[in-house]
């Protein structure tokens, strides 16, 4: 009896391990990516613009704050569904996934987890609907891997807080209606919701980027910015606040690059079958088949890693070290595959007519943000040895 043909981009039939709802979510986001993202994203990358008209459509699909409860206008999906959303969006472009990650995990999540009920009711339904966009102000100009060395500070002044400082490399900064800003206080690091237009608060877009060009990146500047105590997130103090948000976002990032890698493998495979050299397609050469097979192997391992991580998250058992291992492995996997796919495409691979160079450039940012590769390696090393080598 002949063996059935495997899906070349799902060799271990991960799809059979998904629930009916998870399959529906993946299919819906895949259609959105195929029909709305892929036709325009090359031009958006070339021009350095974020496709704003996609935001209402993403909201309509329930992709913003997808894991938060329905009582706040969110979809109430599980963690695996959120991961699949990230995978399919990043199959389109890391910038599109970054938008959704920041809105969902770095802005809506802290309001839900650390905010007051009044803050939840005020902001979350509008954010889920895409009517209010957020950004996350943690990283500072002098360095991102040591958030405890934060210079931005907030001081009490009567019933208000006065914020001074600067943040850098902030996704959605110039799109945002609100910023979740982390600042040093006399009581430890605390989070504040700062609204656009507040006197002294300025966002400046970063230009001349060669990565995440279809994404808005900004610097945020705070010059005696006065906010009421009602804008402070009351239910967390210390680094565990922002780090808790980052764990949520990093979880999604373990899935996203799988989509980028699949896009690169698919394009390299199709190209190799039509590119004729020395009277045969390059797909008929051992060198190319070895490269394609290695890509498929690494994608399969990443798929299994993220699926198990998602199941652990849904069971309430996920540990930050597990997220670090998957983020490190999966982003490195995707970056290596994007570069290899670019090589298979030869000269054609340096243009945005094809996706590998765009994904490779984007992944240079993804491997840096939400914890650099080195930081995640050291997190795993600390878990193994019990010794902090930071």
UniProtKB/TrEMBL annotation:
Cofactor(s) annotated in UniProt: FAD
EC annotation from Swiss-Prot or TrEMBL: 1.3.8.6
Any one GO molecular-function label of the UniProt entry: glutaryl-CoA dehydrogenase activity
Residue span, Acyl-CoA oxidase/dehydrogenase middle domain: 135-225
Swiss-Prot/TrEMBL catalytic activity: glutaryl-CoA + oxidized [electron-transfer flavoprotein] + 2 H(+) = (2E)-butenoyl-CoA + reduced [electron-transfer flavoprotein] + CO2
Pathway involvement of the protein, from the record: Amino-acid metabolism; tryptophan metabolism; Amino-acid metabolism; lysine degradation
UniProt KW keywords: FAD, Flavoprotein, Oxidoreductase, Transit peptide
Gene Ontology biological process terms in this record: fatty acid beta-oxidation using acyl-CoA dehydrogenase; fatty-acyl-CoA biosynthetic process
Residue ranges annotated for the Acyl-CoA dehydrogenase/oxidase C-terminal domain, each copy included: 238-384
Pfam families: Acyl-CoA_dh_1, Acyl-CoA_dh_M, Acyl-CoA_dh_N
Residue stretches making up the Acyl-CoA dehydrogenase/oxidase N-terminal domain: 19-131
EC supergroup of this enzyme: oxidoreductase
Family under the similarity heading: Belongs to the acyl-CoA dehydrogenase family.
Family matches, as PANTHER family: GLUTARYL-COA DEHYDROGENASE, MITOCHONDRIAL
Name of this chain's protein: glutaryl-CoA dehydrogenase (ETF)
Organism: Tahibacter aquaticus
Lineage: Bacteria, Pseudomonadati, Pseudomonadota, Gammaproteobacteria, Lysobacterales
